[in-house]
Amino acid sequence: MREVLEAALDEFEATDRVSDVARASTAALLTALGWSGEVLDSSAIPTREGRSERLADLAAATSSTHYLCGTGGWRYLDTQAFDAHGIQVRSFHTPVGMGDLLWRWARQTSSLWAMSSLGPTALGEKLIEHRPAVALGVSV
Q1: C-alpha angle with apex 29: 100 to 5, nearest 5 degrees?
Q2: What is the DSSP letter of 91?
Q3: Is 58 helix (H, G, I), strand (E, B) or coil?
Q4: DSSP letter at 115?
Q5: Verdict on whether the full-model pTM lies above 0.70
Q6: Which value, in Å, is the radius of gyration of the alpha carbons in the chain?
Q7: Which of 72-76, 79-83, 94-98, 112-116 has the lowest mean pLDDT?
Q8: Which residues contact 42 (CB under 8 A, 6 or more apart)?
């Protein structure tokens, strides 16, 4: 867990770009959770104009079969952009009514808070508990 926080803090000292800090902290968090994938820069992937088209093109470039969309994205997302690539759009909501501290504050906190509060093992277990889309073969 300390490595994740140190990676984020190191990046804060090295740059004034939020995107660099977000990338470093996300990669460190995913690594701590056991993920061994590759982080790609969206700017290196050819995409069309428009928010939905850009997201659909990024999902297609990473061979995604599904796109998880939170409540905020549904306000603007055009699912037809995903249909053109054969990518299913699925709604993602955090569990409601659970007394679980992780989900109760999920919209107001960062993943680093969850990691530092729960630790990587417990956080990984909580995420696995709420993975209906992963069970469907989602790749995002």
Answers
A1: 95
A2: E
A3: helix
A4: H
A5: no
A6: 16
A7: 94-98
A8: 54, 58
Structure tokens, 94: 């955090």
| Cα gap 67→97, rounded to integer Å | 25
Residues 44-87: tens digit of each pLDDT: 999 999 999 999 999 999 999 999 887 788 889 999 999 999 99
The helix, strand and coil proportions of the chain, stated in percent and rounded to the nearest 5, come to 55, 5, 40
Cβ partners under 8 Å of residue 50, min gap 6: 78, 81
Residue closest to 123 by CA, chosen among 135, 106, 140 = 106
* pLDDT tens digits for range 6-56: 887 888 889 888 888 888 888 888 888 888 888 888 889 999 999 999 999
> In the chain, where do the E strands start and end?
66-69, 88-91
**CB contact at 8 A, 45 and 57:** yes
